[in-house]
Amino acid sequence: MKKMFMMLFTFVFIVTGTANAAAALSVQEAMNQPDGASVTVGGYIVGVPVSQSDVQQSGFTSDYALALADDPNETQMSNMILVKLDSAYRGEYGLQSNPGMMGENIQVDGVRDPYFGHEGIENVSSITTVTDEGSGDDGGTSTSGYYASASGLTGSSLKAALHNIIDDHSELSYSQVWDALRHTDEDPYNTNNVVLLYSGDSISKYENGGYVDEWNREHVWAKSHGDFGTSQGAGTDLHHLRPTDVSINSSRGNLDFDNGGSALAEAPSNYYDSDSWEPRDEVKGDVARMIFYMATRYEGDAGEVDLEIATYTGTSGAFLGKLSTLKQWHEMDPVSDFERNRNDIIFSDYQGNRNPYIDHPEFVEYIW
Fold this sequence. Notes:
Largest sheet: 5 strands, mixed, barrel
Strand content: 15-25%
Number of helices: 11
Shape: elongated
Number of domains: 2
Radius of gyration: 22 Å
Distance between the termini: 32 Å
Structural class: alpha+beta
Number of strands: 17
């Protein structure tokens, strides 16, 4: 059943993708088109042009233009085409406002004209994010440029680089999380419903609240482990918030994660004891990757909480266990299309950052 779910979800995702790269010119092809020609060009966002000789690739100070290249790791301006962004596109694609768009593959329709004295595109009529089908471990969406600064690193250096990549993002209010979860956790078989994390049940998106048999907002990294509550930041981060049955959420409480215990009567695929919770097999990896994300995103800088994964259960403070079990779950339950789609939605529609351990599962072993 899980295999059939993944095949159907993959089909749905590809059909509804925003664009297909095959219809566009490459950056090099577009650069060879005559001035005044209408073009459709696909390429990776590699920076912000700020002069005839300078493209910012970090510390962005403008939303007014983009540089595109055929290689997401391109650094030579001679291999880039410059795209002038009119006001309609700056809020969504400008890198000062959306630094997480760095490395994204987009398709641009416009007119081939010089910009900053360089091959460029002006009078843009549309921009779409491209679905690169079959492009690798990230399940269809190219993210190689997004993680460029982490290339070749391991251990604490890799963890620090990933933190810097995912650290700055839009933050939701706790009330906004309701609508966001209706989108991120939508049941692909029934778009009127959401899929609940621990039980796997599919119930109406609008049966949410605090009563029995409704769903509420589960903090997978229990909010008491760090005392961040429901405040913006860790308390509202969609990468670890999932819809769960109210009473099952209560049963999990703030337990650490580990194998064993007694079956939960209301959802017998989940087990618990005095200091740990074991979710159903189908989401063990999901849980592990959410915990790895939280321990990477929240490192104590900028006045935020420093979250750390412990090697034991029965934790307190800003710790959550158990590392060896979470690594085991990560291996036994690989990334699913549901997770990938959820990661894409959070990135594109809500927070502007990604869970690196969904895009690159190998990072877990490199760090832990």
